[in-house]
Amino acid sequence: MAEEVSLGRLPAVVAFGGGHGLASSLTALRRITDRLTAIVTVADDGGSSGRLRDELDCLPPGDLRMALAALCGDDESGRTWAEVLQYRFPGDGSLGGHAIGNLLIAGLWQRLGGDPVAGLDMVARLLDAKGRVLPMSAVPLQIEADVVGLDAAAPDEVSTVRGQAQVAKTMAEVRAVRLNPADPPASAQAVRAVGDADWLVLGPGSWFTSVIPHLLVPELARAIVDTGARRILTMNVQSDAETKGASAARHLELLAEHAPKLRLDVVIADRSFARDDPHLETYARSLGAELVLADVAHRDGSPRHDPLRLASAYADIMGV
Q: Name one GO biological process term (predicted).
């Protein structure tokens, strides 16, 4: 990697995730490389995305839209386009709650005969996006979760919660997730991007609905496991609503339970989340990874990553 950087070749980086977590990593990564691909989960079934998915039988566009917005530049044009993509129509009418970017993406898919990658590439060119956005699968997916505590009268009983929106907000403890269909086709372009990458970045994001699902698409999971690229896992700055107070080490354990063949090279954890967790380094080593502790949380104390701090951590690790 050092030789490549010295020759002026920035690393090819593939980032996985969905929603705000992926947007954070992309905002950081576009500051250190111009060879960036986002591979995005396609299981969202709530809000505007769920409505368009049901009405048009298309991939849910919301997380893809957020990734494209995160890849817009920092100049006035880039900021304007990002705001336009994210703008939602007000009110309770037929357009109420829809994001402009969702309608744009869904409309292009209809115009281009349902080719999701061609539509996303066209939006990226329109925005002058600093990277490429790809769906992880060619078909819309449903997330199912095994949970305990859903029924207060039977707190140890295992129940099933279906749908990303329901899994994300369940008050029960999520033990495991799976995809329906169980063997979905991976996006061919996504698999090729993994094979061509120098670095893969998993996380941050909602653990069960944004991070783990990529490892449940068999062909994509094999590509991640078999790649010659180095693999970084970016931990959340604290447990989220889905993991409900789980330690940082427990997050790694959950990842390993869903993808037992996965090995990592680096685990990035914010110092505040790693503090008082004596098992984190042991779990990281069990996955083959070096644990890197860094101050990557936002300075205002909110549970999110600071893009500049995260970019600095990525640059140090990648030797950029």
A: regulation of cell shape
What is the token pair recorded at 282?
A: 């042991």
Q: Is the distance from CB of 198 to CB of 11 less than 8 angstroms?
A: yes
For residue range 225-242, what is the model confidence (pLDDT) as tens digits? 999 999 999 999 999 889
Its CATH class, for the domain covering 1-41+182-320, is: alpha beta
How far lies 218's CA from each of 42, 73, 178, 274, 314, in Å? 15, 34, 12, 31, 28
State the residue for tokens 């999520």.
174
d(CA 248, CA 234): 11
- The pLDDT tens digits for 23-59 are 999 999 999 999 999 999 999 999 999 999 999 999 9
- Residue 142: in which H helix or E strand, if any? strand 142-148
CB 206 within 8 Å of CB 242: yes
- The secondary element (H helix, E strand) that includes residue 315 is helix 307-318
User: What is the distance, to the nearest Å, from the Cα of residue 144 to the centroid of all Cα atoms in its chain?
Assistant: 18
Residue 310 sits at the vertex; the CA angle it makes with 305 and 313, to the nearest 5 degrees, is 145
Place of tokens 């447990």: 239
Burial (CB < 10 A; 0-12, 13-18, 19+), residue 3, is exposed
SS3 helix, strand, coil % of the chain, rounded to 5?
45, 20, 40
- In DSSP terms, 200 is beta-bridged to 14, 231
Where in the chain are the domains? Answer: 1-41+182-320, 42-135, 142-177
Phi-psi region of 172 (alpha: psi -120 to 50; beta: other; left: phi over 0): beta
DSSP-derived 3-state class of residue 254? helix
